[in-house]
Write a structure and sequence with these properties.
Helix content is 21%, strand content 24%. The chain has 282 residues and is an alpha/beta fold. It folds into three domains: 9-23 and 189-277, Molybdenum Cofactor Biosythetic Enzyme, Chain A (3-Layer(aba) Sandwich), CATH 3.40.980; 27-48 and 153-186, Molybdopterin biosynthesis moea protein, domain 2, CATH 3.90.105.10; 53-148, Molybdopterin biosynthesis moea protein, domain 3 (Molybdopterin biosynthesis moeA protein, domain 3), CATH 2.170.190.11. It has a five-stranded mixed β-sheet, with no helix packed on it. A three-stranded parallel β-sheet has the order 15-12-16, sandwiched between helices. Strands 1-11 form a two-stranded antiparallel ribbon. Helix 5 crosses helix 6 (265-277). The longest helix is centred in the last third of the chain and has 13 residues, at 265-277.
Length: 282
């Protein structure tokens, strides 16, 4: 039944939200930022990939050399070297040559395609103990085949993560790929939790006559943690002005104070009076 002294839930929510503001930023190690919200845009300071590189294990070639390659008539190229990921090659590729290349390795100068191992006769050569200073290409390669271009994923100066975005595990990986060990995020709110009532008994203690265990504190605190806040449990407020004043005072330096218990108008007035005496409002 509607009570004249009560306000609608929507109005109560508007009143609560009108008092909430964005908290100050903090700089933290990226692994400690999961679930927090970015306080500033994050822009790349270099290209990703930082250089043209191979998307496959295979052979860097000039695509034009392979245009007539087939299973029946392989095109044979001289293998002049090998390049692994993290080790740029000093060689320049010219017509009739190939360079063995690993996935992620920088593309050698002159190369414009990478033929994957499956489209060569390398496996057959190894099986037959034939020399590997030549390689047979059995499929034609188009220019750009199996090449990841510089800046293809992210370009220098590009805003990668925007202010106001929550950081999920994939975003933490993005920050790491940009070389960032720290991030500027909105700090987590500290929320004090207070349950009230003489009937409440703390967990871990034996129940007294007429008592029940304080479950609200833990339900609320768990929800705070799930939503990304930091719960500060300040205990149980007993049904006296002195006890309520003491407990509420302990929570006033938090960003928010949540109380539970006291469902009657009289209980509300008690809390309101305590807060009024402390210079704040319900």
């Amino acid at each position: 039944m509607y009570k004249p002294h009560m306000i609608p839930v929507e109005e109560a929510l508007d009143k609560i939200l009108s008092t909430i503001h964005v908290l100050e930023p903090e700089v933290k190690p990226i692994l400690d930022c999961r679930g927090q919200v970015l306080a500033a845009d994050v822009a790349a300071t270099f290209d990703i990939p930082p250089h043209d590189n191979s998307a496959m294990d295979g052979f860097a070639v000039l695509a034009g050399d392979t245009s007539r390659a087939s299973q029946k008539q392989p095109v044979y190229l001289d293998v002049i070297g090998e390049v692994a990921a993290g080790y740029p090659s000093s060689l320049t590729l010219t017509s009739g040559k190939a360079i063995r290349i690993m996935t992620g390795a920088p593309l050698p100068a002159g190369a414009d395609a990478v033929v994957q191992f499956e489209n060569t006769d390398e496996t057959a050569r190894k099986k037959d103990n034939r020399p590997l200073d030549k390689i047979g290409i059995i499929e034609p390669a188009a220019p750009g085949l199996n090449i990841r271009r510089k800046g293809e994923d992210i370009q220098s100066g590009q805003v990668v993560l925007k202010r106001g975005s929550p950081l999920y595990p994939a975003d933490i990986g993005v920050l790491a790929s940009l070389g960032q060990a720290q991030a500027t995020v909105i700090r987590r709110p500290v929320i004090a939790v207070l349950s009230t009532g003489d009937e409440l008994c703390p967990t871990g203690q034996p129940l007294g006559p007429g008592q029940i265990y304080d479950s609200n504190t833990y339900t609320i605190a768990a929800n705070i943690a799930t939503c990304g806040g930091i719960a500060r449990i300040i205990g149980i407020g007993r049904d006296t002005l002195a006890s309520l004043q003491d407990k509420i005072n302990r929570g006033l330096d938090a960003d928010m104070l949540i109380t539970s218990g006291g469902v009657s108008r009289g209980d509300y007035d008690v809390v309101k009076d305590v807060l009024a005496k402390m210079g704040t409002s319900a």
